[in-house]
Amino acid sequence: EEQQRQLRAAVVGRARLIHQMNTLLQRPDTQQQKLGESEEQHNGSVLFKTLLGELGELYVQTDRILGEKVFKVTSPLVYKPTRTYRQGVEFFENTDATVVPFGFEQTCRAVSLLMMTDPTVARCGKEVQEPPNTVTVKYQIKSQLKPGESYKLMVYAAVRRYREPGRMVFVWRALQEGLSTLSGYHANETGWLVLRPHLGGCVMESYVRLVPASVGDAARCKAASDRFAEVVLKTGEGEVNDLMVTLEKMLLGDTK
Predict the structure, then answer these.
(1) Which CATH number covers residue 220?
(2) Could you give the C-alpha distances from 80 to 94, 120, 227, 240, in angstroms and in order?
(3) Which top-rank group of organisms is this from (predicted)?
């Protein structure tokens, strides 16, 4: 019953975000001007406020959600989501853990820099009032499934950090929008990352859930839907790999 409740909540949340994406972000500029939409709507801050509004509840769920998962320790952290169907809902989930051979405090500082102050993406704090230990970002990313086959995604994300005695918790919500040939496709992402001391080092546990969706004509093309999901998964894999490489370089630099 609890799993059914979670799935119903995920479906409702997905529908709400997709509706906001379509009404706030996908209209042509001329139509926005004609309808007299506010600057707040145009820059997507209403969408960010929705994402921000869900972070507190995600944090409350941390122990329950992660307590239900079985973490396999790998080196480095691996991002290979598996496709799952439950109660008629298709989603992808990734559960993984890794042990970092550096001190807990040192690792927390480095991960915080990577998660909260990435200089390669646009901060949205000017448009959205960010609570403490919270960032909102918007960025475009490219992905190539094979030579000559390039795709683009627009990512809207909100991340929050919580510091507790003996551990640090990151929670995030993100919406990934397909651009150009992937227009009409979206992926609703929810994630947790927990760091805690482990035998002189630090263990990182990560759980990510992705719920793909499509609207309009896009909803009728299974092949294109699968292609979009593949693009999102490959993009996520690349981002996690880059994060782990950068984290190692930062930690090694601190020890010199």
Answers:
(1) 3.30.530.20
(2) 6, 24, 16, 10
(3) Eukaryota
Per-residue pLDDT of the chain (256 residues; tens, 9 = 90+): 555 555 555 555 554 544 444 444 444 433 333 333 444 444 568 889 999 999 999 999 999 999 999 999 998 888 999 999 888 888 999 999 999 999 999 999 999 999 987 655 555 555 566 788 999 999 999 988 888 888 999 999 999 999 999 999 999 999 999 998 898 899 999 999 999 999 889 999 999 999 998 876 655 677 888 899 999 999 999 999 999 999 999 999 865 5
92: left (phi over 0), alpha (psi -120 to 50) or beta: beta
How many residues are recorded in the chain?
Answer: 256
Largest Cα span, the chain: 62
Looking at residue 71, its amino acid is F
Range of the domain at 216: 2-255
Q: Number of structural domains, the chain?
A: 1
For residue 86, give every residue at least 6 positions away whose Cβ sits within 8 Å of its Cβ, in sequence order, or none.
3, 7
Helix (H, G, I), strand (E, B) or coil at 27: coil
Q: Determine the straight-line distance between the first and last CA of the chain, rounded to whole angstroms.
A: 53
